[in-house]
Amino acid sequence: MKIDYMEFRDLVPVTRKYKYLNHAAISPTPLPVLMDSFSFMYDVADGGTIAVNYAEREDLNYIRKPISRLINSHVKEVSLIENTSYGINMIIHGIGLKEGDEILTDSSEFPAITSASFKLSKRGIKVKIVEVSPETFEDDIISNLNENVRLIAISSTSFLTGVTPDLSKIGKEAKSNGSLLLVDGIQTVGAGNIDVEKDGIDFLVAGGYKWMMSPQGSGFMFVRKGLLEDPPWYGWRADSEYEEFNPYKFTPDKGPRRFEIGTYPMVSLVGMKKAAEIIHENSSMIYSRVRELSKLAIECLKDKGMKVLTPEEKRTGIVTVEVKDPRKTVEELFSKYRIIVSPRGKGIRISAHFYNTEEEVKEACENISRIENQ
């Protein structure tokens, strides 16, 4: 499905009511994604198990394939999950960390990584949160590597500052140190390029409901071949012979289904398949458009003398600007101007997707400045 970004706006109903610049929180569902999900629901209403069995064909490899294309992985390395936190927990608790081992993460992380890690601290595993700045993120992480660091767990783009670090640089140093690299990709996949091979990523996890424009309850995890062959948790669907329904034996599937422990959220996964196809077929336009709009936001805000926390040279779609009262400013932007953004930390987070317009971004920046200077 080749698209024009202005024409695509008509397929996103929220654009008729709001200036929606909040894709780092939740993306509005585009009509092609909605209709594929709805079509599946109707098929179930009309056919019951016949529709469900058909949707679960090919071991769901037809859904894994468009996702694998987005991240340059093999289809058999992509598991289908309901959210990022599930995947992070599966990985952190499954790689066999022992007392004295360390997990290295950073101060700008969303709690999905840190909260899952803290459970391990009760077993003598150290969780080190490195104080990072957007400008020196990579060096801040690399300088804290030591022989005990088994896992580096970071985001591809910070939800807080918008910094998109050089993952290949960190991945190279991780490999030299004998450490594994886990990346929370939810703030990049769908907005910018991630290449698990080039970047040296061992594990990549992402929910689909942000930049991928998929329904909530959709997501995926990439696990490099040869890693985590025995998951920390078992479930009936992860059995290599699950259709036997035999309560007396269990052998984990050797493929990606070993992490898929229960019934699939097919409504959401069907929608994610459609979204992944749209993004892959238009990736060059989408990724460049997202960067153009984030650059515009940075330039506009700086021109008005505001402090932008996102480094222009290391960005994807998120731009965070510091303000005196983030929540109050966000509320006023919505009530007066129908602009939707999010308060995060000390600032406001603008996150425009490819179908937003330059006028919407400029209007948001101008009104943020106006409110700040009242």
**Proportion of residues in extended strands:** 5-15%
Derived structural class? alpha/beta
Question: Average pLDDT, to the nearest integer?
Answer: 97
Radius of gyration, taken over Cα atoms and rounded to an integer in Å:
21 Å
> What is the H-and-E element order?
HEHHHEHEHEHEHEEEHHEHEEEH
Assign the CATH class of the largest domain.
Answer: Alpha Beta
**CATH superfamily assignment of the largest domain?**
Type I PLP-dependent aspartate aminotransferase-like (Major domain)
Low-confidence stretches: none
For the biggest sheet, the summary is: 7 strands, mixed
SS elements, strand count: 12
Side-by-side strand order of the widest sheet: 2-8-7-6-5-3-4
Looking at the overall shape, the CATH architecture of the largest domain is 3-Layer(aba) Sandwich
Total domain units: 2
Q: Could you say which overall geometry the principal axes of the C-alpha atoms support?
A: globular
| Number of distinct helices | 12
- Percentage of helical residues? 25-40%
The CATH topology of the largest domain: Aspartate Aminotransferase, domain 2
Termini gap? 46 Å
Structure description:
With 374 residues, this protein is α/β, with parallel strands linked by helices. It has two domains: 117 residues, Aspartate Aminotransferase, domain 1; 248 residues, Type I PLP-dependent aspartate aminotransferase-like (Major domain) (Aspartate Aminotransferase, domain 2), CATH 3.40.640.10. The protein has a seven-stranded mixed sheet, with helices on both faces. A three-stranded antiparallel sheet has the order 9-12-11, with helices on one face. A two-stranded parallel sheet has the order 1-10. Helix 6 links the parallel strand 3 and strand 4. Helix 2 crosses helix 3, helix 5 runs parallel beside helix 6 and helix 11 packs across helix 12. The chain is globular, with a radius of gyration of 21 Å. It starts with a helix and ends with a helix. The model has no long low-confidence stretch (mean pLDDT 97).
